């Protein structure tokens, strides 16, 4: 895929992976629009990279999604929709009764799964009208093997992975040229996992690998440990599960 002179929308783009991706896409000569819930963070990103267009929007809010679509349409549309926004809730032991289990699961599913489908649906015809267009859905290494620390998060990413594969097939069936990429990050060194002591991949390196995958039209982009875990899980699933769920992780759900 040609990654020059494209207009790219990145959800959850005010910090972390989203902001680094915005920076690298700008460097390649693209127009980049980022969204996020936190206006202050968006404004800070704009100060850092003045070329950015910022739009405050909550991925969990259906009305925000419609308003975002209308604003993007007024700006001339996009060529790439990068669904990067994602949330996770603090780990709890699912075997101990708590109303927080369902509350947390609904919140994670609303952002990580339903929010992606909502935006894809809104922008689908716009993307179809472009000469070269793409959707990037961010799943996770945890869509391969679940984490006891992030049970519902893992489930949302597995659901999104299956949806992504189906969406790709459906578009092929109707002869659409829109490309659908699935991005599987490993544990990346962001503020979201700052307290974790596990091995983390540098953000800049991760985004570089994403861009290489897009340029090579690699529709499933496994980066770092996601590659090795994928193959290990096929031949030794118990070992793969143990690698993801270390003994010390269980202390958080006692």
From TrEMBL:
Gene3D superfamilies: NAD(P)-binding Rossmann-like Domain. Keywords: Oxidoreductase. One of its GO terms (cellular component) is membrane. GO terms for molecular function: oxidoreductase activity. InterPro entries: NAD(P)-bd_dom_sf, Sc_DH/Rdtase_CS, SDR_fam. Belongs to the short-chain dehydrogenases/reductases (SDR) family. This is SDR family NAD(P)-dependent oxidoreductase. It comes from Chryseobacterium panacisoli.
